[in-house]
Amino acid sequence: MNPFRKNHKQLSIFVTAGYPELNSLPDQIGYLEQRGVDFIEVGVPFSDPMADGPTIQKSSEIALKNGMTVSLLFDQIALVNAKVPLIIMSYFNPILHFGIERFLKRCQEARVSHVIVPDISLEVYEKLYRSDFEQYGVTLCFLITPRTSSSRVEKMSQLSSNGFLYLVSSNMTTGNTGKSLRVSDEELSRIRSAAGDTPLMIGFGIKTKADVAEVHRKADGAIIGSAYIKALAEGKSEDFISSVLAPEPQNP
Amino acid sequence: MISTIDFKKPDSLGFYGGFGGAFVPELLRQNLTSLEEAFREAKQDDAFHSSFQRLLKDYVGRPSPLYFSNYLSETYGAKIYLKREDLNHTGSHKINNALGQILLAQRMQKRQIIAETGAGQHGVATATACALLNMECIVFMGEKDMERQAPNVQRMRMLGAKVIAATSGSKTLKDATNEAIRYWINHPDAYYLIGSVVGPHPYPEMVAYFQSVISHEIQTQLLAAEGTETPSKVIACVGGGSNAAGAFHHFYDSSAQLIAVEAAGMGVDTGQSAATSALGVNGVLHGSMTLLMQDDDGQVVEPYSISAGLDYPGIGPEHAHAILSQRTKAINITDTEAVAAAFELTRNEGIIPALESAHAIAALKKTKFQPDEIVVVNLSGRGDKDMSTYIKHHESIS
Ligand SMILES: Cc1ncc(COP(=O)(O)O)c(C=O)c1O
């Protein structure tokens, strides 16, 4: 059964495993869950994160200096017994090096049923890795962009139907400044209809309560990454969570 | 037996055997698809070819000479030729690819060109091509490389390019490439002009295609000089591997032995090395599956070489495949051996090679030859950019 639902206005927070301290993850998961975050993305730090802007690059660098590894990540997840879904987000190389089957098996044991691997493309997944993922019951949630063709969105939505599609709101690396939701209403409705029953979450550049509210009017959930990491770095993460979870002000 | 065709042309997803492909975020999918379409169309277009050939001849000065070196031949006991890519306009083989791709960018109606560079030769070649075709040019270069290849930074700036320092990681070619990719994600209308046979499909195939003029000329030139198109050995240095891909291309289906020379840095086992095929295992970096230097956790290792152009933790997928299937032999050369070879060539032939190319020259000492075998060493570039390193070394020995 898909833990992600359509029209449920979910909110997800991204954390870099091993940041700010090597063992921060279990407490962070516990805290975010208790505050009512709907699901949590756990980022595996990588030395060369090509789709990430400076904030997540920096958190990854610090996490690696702290000694974070894939294996340790699974150990830490095992400590928390999270009630909300945890999604592992990793560039492909750390997974490949860990061993794909070994990684998927550890996911299965840790009850992680969804992963996001930004640099595995649809074509490569179908040709090389789909059968492994299916064998272990792990769903790859694909990234899509406003430029992704409807036929690709359809294929990806079938493959991600036990999870969600991750719509990157415009062509940019994570944490980019500027207007957060640059996808037009027309593009969005095209994507929504191609996505069918697969929930659509929007991420990259979501920073404020207002951004979240706008995403919730247009899609099934919002994912916040860099803005949370930045708040963590500034020691303001609790205030930040309060601000994005606050009820939406009623329009007069 | 692996079909030799595999080394020249990847499959439809861009794989050479198990290497290559396009491991990129969806954000770059559309760009790569458009690029591939434009490349396939251009290949079929006579007008494109004639523009490219005209530039290679009149602007670059091709064909580059195939020079018989008396000194090297006598010293190493074989008939040794140097393919003089150092005599190209801008001083290296990089201009071949830069011009091919800039014509493609022009066909695609692109206005802004971005590139990464290590030694600065690809940056200079790209800035030159942009000056020629009046396009905006941004070059990403590691901060460390901007220092050790300072003359090339000045050349790029004089040519009108903006040079942006990459300050992450080892501050070298790997990091410059990360920055270029990120810029491309944020500016999908830019044309990314990659400088070696690395990156996601179709780049490795395309760059090899534009560089293949090197081996094509060697065939014609050897036929005239020796009555045979095929040397017994071709030797080229490998950073990402574009000069080697160009020098090997038309010889994959011949009897020629192909020797790829990697940078050992301080020595393969010192932890200060860039000898990728000796130290790397399967991995994904910059959009392709290849041999990759990495630690036990799959984090990319910061490579080291005295030569900024060889200081890269990966290798083109074509070479990864050819080396593992034993079509190409990989050897490696230390900093010290390369600098010694540069001085040897300079004093005896009056040719100051680029530090990268000096690695290929140094490979002669490590290779056994039959007396009349024909050997071609690809002299990928000239040493002007490396004078500060050479002067330092010279002062330390005199
Ligand atoms: C003269 C010269 N040779 C070789 C290289 C290495 O590149 P590749 O391995 O792509 O030929 C460079 C790169 O900067 C170079 O400047």
Briefly, what CATH class of chain A? Alpha Beta
Radius of gyration of chain B: 19 Å
Q: How many β strands of chain B by DSSP?
A: 15
Roughly what fraction of the amino acids of chain A lie in strands?
A: 5-15%
Number of strands of chain A: 9
Content of β-strand of chain B? 15-25%
Q: For the record, give the distance between the C-alpha atoms at the N and C termini of chain A, rounded to a whole number.
A: 40 Å
CATH architecture of the largest domain in chain B: 3-Layer(aba) Sandwich
Q: What kind of sheet is the major sheet of chain A? A: 9 strands, parallel
Mean pLDDT of chain B: 96
Q: What distance separates the N and C termini of chain B?
A: 52 Å
Count of DSSP-assigned helices of chain A = 11
Low-confidence stretches of chain A: none
- The percent of residues in helical segments of chain A reads 40-55%
Instruction: Please name the CATH architecture of chain A.
Output: Alpha-Beta Barrel
Topology (SSEs and partners):
The complex is a heterodimer of chains A (252) and B (398).
Chain A lengths: L9 E7 L8 H11 L3 E5 L10 H13 L3 H11 L5 E4 L2 H7 L1 H10 L4 E3 L5 H14 L3 E2 L2 E2 L5 H10 L5 E4 L16 H11 L4 E4 L5 H10 L2 E4 L1 H8 L3 H9 L7
Parallel strand pairs in A: 1-2, 1-9, 2-3, 3-4, 4-5, 6-7, 7-8, 8-9
Chain B lengths: L4 H4 L6 E2 L2 E2 L8 H15 L2 H15 L5 E3 L1 H7 L2 E6 L9 H14 L4 E6 L3 H13 L2 E7 H6 L1 H9 L3 E5 L6 H14 L4 E2 L10 H9 L1 H14 L6 E5 L4 H7 L8 E11 L4 E3 L1 H4 L1 E5 L2 E5 L24 H8 L3 E7 H15 L5 H8 L11 E6 L7 H11 L1
Parallel strand pairs in B: 4-15, 5-6, 5-8, 6-7, 9-10, 9-15, 10-14
Antiparallel strand pairs in B: 1-2, 3-4, 10-11, 12-13
Helix pairs in contact in B: 3-5, 5-6, 5-10, 6-8, 10-12, 11-12, 15-16
